[in-house]
Amino acid sequence: MKSVTDSFVSLGHWPSAGGFGFNTDILATNPINLSVVLGVLIYFGKGVLNNLLDNRKQRILSTIRNSEELRRGAIEQLEKARARLRKVEMKANEYRVNGYSEIEREKENLINATCDILERLENYKNETLNFEQQRAINQVRQRVFQQALQGALGTLNSCLNSELHFRTISANIGILGAMEE
């Protein structure tokens, strides 16, 4: 026991302390100090440490249970979301197919309407050409008739003397008078 106390207290080491002092030799005092501190901690801290470890264990277990519940809830939500996604994809495909068919229908209607408009424009063009052609023919006829009439009048005027002219006018007036009656 004397060596143990010598390791703590050295009377001759610090002469100014008056016979009492601390041993500063770390290698000699450290294992003893550690064993004393550990013994005290184990003796007094065993219950506290057990309580702390039990509390920690209960918190870890409850956290694991909560995590499992959250995981199950997340899996359920994931399945619901996947089901909704499938429904939305089906609707999107349906809209896409309907949209394409609607676009094709509209395209066909537009082509048909354009063809109808072109046909009407073609008919209108043909009618306009026929009208203009008839008008040109009528103008030519009128000119030919006027020229023939002027030629006939010229021929009549040159061939008729005034007596023959007077008889022709009288005959024509008689015919017109008979027509009026």
TrEMBL record:
Transmembrane segments: 32-53
Main function: F(1)F(0) ATP synthase produces ATP from ADP in the presence of a proton or sodium gradient. F-type ATPases consist of two structural domains, F(1) containing the extramembraneous catalytic core and F(0) containing the membrane proton channel, linked together by a central stalk and a peripheral stalk. During catalysis, ATP synthesis in the catalytic domain of F(1) is coupled via a rotary mechanism of the central stalk subunits to proton translocation. Component of the F(0) channel, it forms part of the peripheral stalk, linking F(1) to F(0).
Coiled-coil residue spans: 64-98
GO cellular component: chloroplast thylakoid membrane; proton-transporting ATP synthase complex
Protein's UniProt keywords contain Transmembrane: yes
Location within or outside the cell: Membrane; Plastid, Chloroplast thylakoid membrane
Family label: Belongs to the ATPase B chain family.
Miscellaneous comment text of the record: In plastids the F-type ATPase is also known as CF(1)CF(0).
Protein name, as recorded: ATP synthase subunit b, chloroplastic
Pfam families attached to this UniProt entry: ATP-synt_B (PF00430)
Subunit structure and binding partners: F-type ATPases have 2 components, F(1) - the catalytic core - and F(0) - the membrane proton channel. F(1) has five subunits: alpha(3), beta(3), gamma(1), delta(1), epsilon(1). F(0) has four main subunits: a(1), b(1), b'(1) and c(10-14). The alpha and beta chains form an alternating ring which encloses part of the gamma chain. F(1) is attached to F(0) by a central stalk formed by the gamma and epsilon chains, while a peripheral stalk is formed by the delta, b and b' chains.
HAMAP family: ATP_synth_b_bprime
Keywords for the protein's UniProt record, in alphabetical order: ATP synthesis, CF(0), Chloroplast, Coiled coil, Hydrogen ion transport, Ion transport, Membrane, Plastid, Thylakoid, Transmembrane, Transmembrane helix, Transport
Membrane topology, from the record: Single-pass membrane protein
GO-annotated molecular function: proton-transporting ATP synthase activity, rotational mechanism
Organism: Stylochaeton bogneri
Main location (coarse class): membrane
